């Protein structure tokens, strides 16, 4: 399996504690709103639909960015651009590891990049609440996938250097799949799973793993630059 895909899944898995903080409230509202009279089956369907929509939005963003840069590189014939951006992606991975380990929170400044777009998307998403059917949860999840998120933006830097639209979509989709265990557990009220994810030991271990992977990616990118 491609190392980037393994890395993307790992980032989603260990970074999902941040996803709970960003999207957990809406995920809980979609599925386990105590004021709702929906059946358990419908609530589960809402949770699945919401997360399906969220993953579709990630895949679309990855395809758009991955395809756009691949076109630029092909037209301009600047292969060194990909190497430089891969170094940037490695740096963002290290910063993300520092955030997950709760040692430095600078990566959250990336979230300000998407606030302008979110200002227009948020009112549309809120109109889809309350969710009465799983099919209604899908577009809600798709729109909520555009919520400004440093974790998502860090992964988008990987999709940019993936080499194409399909590759970018697959990387973001794999990242999204990594976030599913925590998001689904939170959606159905399985707090024990997420208590582990938010523990100090888990965050420290996850942060070290991400920093290590970022350093490995940077070394690999530098070796490619020297080879050119």
From TrEMBL:
The Urease accessory protein UreH-like transmembrane domain, residue ranges: 8-215
Chain segments annotated as transmembrane: 55-76, 83-105, 137-156, 168-193, 205-227
Protein known as: Sulfite exporter TauE/SafE family protein
Species this chain originates from: Vibrio astriarenae
Tagged with keyword Transport: no
Keywords: Membrane, Transmembrane, Transmembrane helix
PANTHER family documented for this protein: HEAVY METAL TRANSPORTER (PTHR42208:SF1), HEAVY METAL TRANSPORTER-RELATED (PTHR42208)
């Amino acid at each position: 399996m491609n190392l980037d895909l393994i890395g993307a899944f790992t980032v989603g898995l260990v970074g999902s504690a941040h996803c709970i903080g960003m999207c957990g409230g809406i995920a809980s509202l979609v599925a386990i709103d105590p004021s709702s009279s929906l059946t358990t089956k419908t609530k589960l369907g809402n949770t699945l639909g919401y997360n399906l929509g969220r993953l579709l939005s990630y895949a679309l963003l990855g395809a758009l960015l991955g395809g756009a840069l691949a076109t630029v590189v092909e037209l301009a014939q600047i292969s060194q651009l990909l190497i430089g951006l891969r170094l940037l992606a490695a740096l963002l991975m290290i910063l993300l590891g520092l955030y997950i380990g709760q040692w430095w929170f600078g990566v959250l400044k990336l979230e300000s990049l998407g606030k302008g777009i979110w200002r227009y998307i948020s009112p549309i998403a809120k109109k889809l609440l309350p969710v009465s059917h799983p099919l209604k949860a899908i577009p809600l999840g798709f729109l909520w996938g555009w919520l400004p998120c440093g974790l998502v933006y860090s992964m988008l830097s990987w999709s940019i250097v993936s080499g194409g639209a399909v590759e970018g979509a697959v990387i973001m989709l794999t990242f999204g799949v990594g976030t599913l265990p925590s998001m689904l557990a939170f959606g159905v009220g399985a707090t024990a799973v997420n208590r582990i994810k938010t523990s100090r030991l888990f965050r420290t271990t996850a942060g070290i793993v991400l920093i290590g992977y970022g350093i490995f990616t940077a070394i690999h990118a530098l070796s490619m630059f020297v080879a050119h």
